[in-house]
Amino acid sequence: MADKDMPDTRSSPFWHPKVHADRRPALLARGRVVRALRAWFAAEDFVEVETGVLQVSPGNEMHLHAFATTLVALDGAASPLYLRTSPEFASKMLLAAGERRIVEFAKVFRNRERGALHAPEFTMVEWYRAGEPYQALMADCAAILAQAAEAAGAKQFSFRGRTADPFAAPERLTVAEAFEKFSGIDLLATLPDGKADRALFARAAQNAGIRIADDDRWGDIFSRVLVERIEGNLGIGRATILDEYPAEQAALARTSRKNPRVAERFELYVCGLELANAFGELTDPAEQRARFAADQVRKQALYGEVYPIDEDFLAALEHDLPPCAGIALGFDRLVMLATGAERIEEVLWAPVA
């Protein structure tokens, strides 16, 4: 006979009293970190906003997959909608409306993602600064790491045997420097005249001992080298700001005025874990439409699915989205680092079953 005091491991056990008791210290720490960050953003004159979860389009970023649903009108007419993968589009519309500094503690949803670091529903802290350079977000990251550690009572962050001092100033490393340092690859040499040379990159990666498939694109090779050789070396001892992503990986970031081969984009790493993704935001509506169209083609070819383009978002850009910088930080991962949790479910109050 089954022990009635033990959880049924065939279902999500978060509700079982013994399991909850073990999880509760990390969950209480999560609450303290939320309060600390909200207080910090308020002191920095950010307005906390709440944007809609249902969206006309979740964007067509290559490897992001949305949950789809249907809106049924009173007359029975049906329209497809999606649960947001990010509050990015709506946030930028608010900047176009006149807001200057905004932040949202947003519930977001991503399909085809589940594991130690991924949950289908999770919390993203996303904030924007209008009229300020993207480098300002680097200082934000340093402050937020310290705020989170202090609130959680953590003297250091830890994950899978790696540690980092959350109170130390982050190191700043360009992507090109990281590729050279950890893989011996001259990344910018694979971007002659700013255009991706797949064959050149493939040879360089193979010479570095990276296995390359015949159908790998330039971006696939980039991701493989990043995962296999670089990410595990970042954020050790102190946080790392990995800056100046190649323009080929710009996403919604603008290209650098100083070097068109790179973009105003950085990612924050702590203990080998990617924690945040930041952009000097693209504000050119024509360029944005072209990127959306290219993303649709690639997504259709790779996954056989594509999402619509959000015309309202492009209209907001046309209306004159101001120069701005934005960043999305995985809040649950931040709490994992501050509490030493190994899996994301350990810091979620009620994980999806």
Look at the structure and give the CATH class of the domain at 17-167 and 283-347. Alpha Beta
The rounded distance between the terminal residues' Cα atoms is 24 Å
Indicate the CATH topology of the domain at 17-167 and 283-347. Answer: BirA Bifunctional Protein, domain 2
Largest sheet: 8 strands, mixed
Compute the gyration radius: what is it? 21 Å
SS summary, helix count:
9
Task: Name some characteristics of this structure.
353 residues; alpha+beta; three-stranded antiparallel β-sheet; 20% strand
Give an overview in words.
By secondary structure, the protein is α+β, with helices and mostly antiparallel strands. The chain has a domain of 216 residues: 2-Layer Sandwich (BirA Bifunctional Protein, domain 2). The protein has an eight-stranded mixed beta sheet with strand order 1-5-6-13-12-11-10-9, sandwiched between helices. Strands 2-4-3 form a three-stranded antiparallel beta sheet, with no helix packed on it. Strand 3 and strand 4 form a beta hairpin. It is globular. 40% of the residues are buried. The N terminus is likely disordered.
Secondary-structure blueprint of this entry?
Blueprint: H1 17-43, E1 47-48, E2 54-55, E3 68-72, E4 78-83, H2 88-97, E5 101-109, E6 121-130, H3 136-152, E7 157-159, E8 162-164, E9 171-174, H4 175-183, H5 198-207, H6 218-230, E10 240-243, E11 265-270, E12 273-280, H7 285-303, H8 311-318, E13 324-330, H9 331-339
Parallel strand pairs: 1-5, 9-10
Antiparallel strand pairs: 2-4, 3-4, 5-6, 6-13, 7-8, 10-11, 11-12, 12-13
Helix pairs in contact: 1-3, 1-9, 3-9, 4-6, 5-6
